[in-house]
Recover the amino acids of this structure.
């Protein structure tokens, strides 16, 4: 007699992708804000110099601000697993962003104990 696979889902994969796109859009808005502020400040120039900074500097500064924000949101909200599949003798953990899966022997997860810790530890 074959034993059926038990599956537990933690959220909808489409919802996870939508959340990632929204976080990316929010980071782009922050990048545009950083770009506009830095471009305004850098193009003001100085009284003793006629040369002003170019747009590339502002783009780099805006990107340097936006990338850590996106990755902080990703690591704290979207990097966890979304599905568990329990089969005979193994547990498959499925991640969505990026899509990957990890197969663990059931003997490794039988003695799991809850410990308070920051996500990812």
């Amino acid at each position: 007699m074959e034993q059926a696979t038990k599956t537990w889902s933690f959220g909808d994969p489409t919802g996870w992708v939508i959340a990632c796109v929204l976080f990316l859009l929010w980071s782009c808005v922050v990048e545009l804000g950083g770009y506009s502020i830095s471009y305004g400040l850098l193009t003001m120039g100085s009284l003793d110099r006629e040369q002003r900074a170019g747009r590339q500097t502002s783009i780099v500064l805006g990107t340097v601000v936006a990338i850590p924000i996106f990755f902080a949101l990703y690591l704290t909200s979207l990097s966890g697993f979304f599905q568990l599949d329990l089969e005979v003798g193994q547990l498959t953990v499925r991640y969505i962003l990026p899509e990957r899966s990890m197969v663990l022997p059931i003997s490794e997860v039988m003695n799991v104990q809850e410990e308070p810790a920051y996500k990812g530890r």
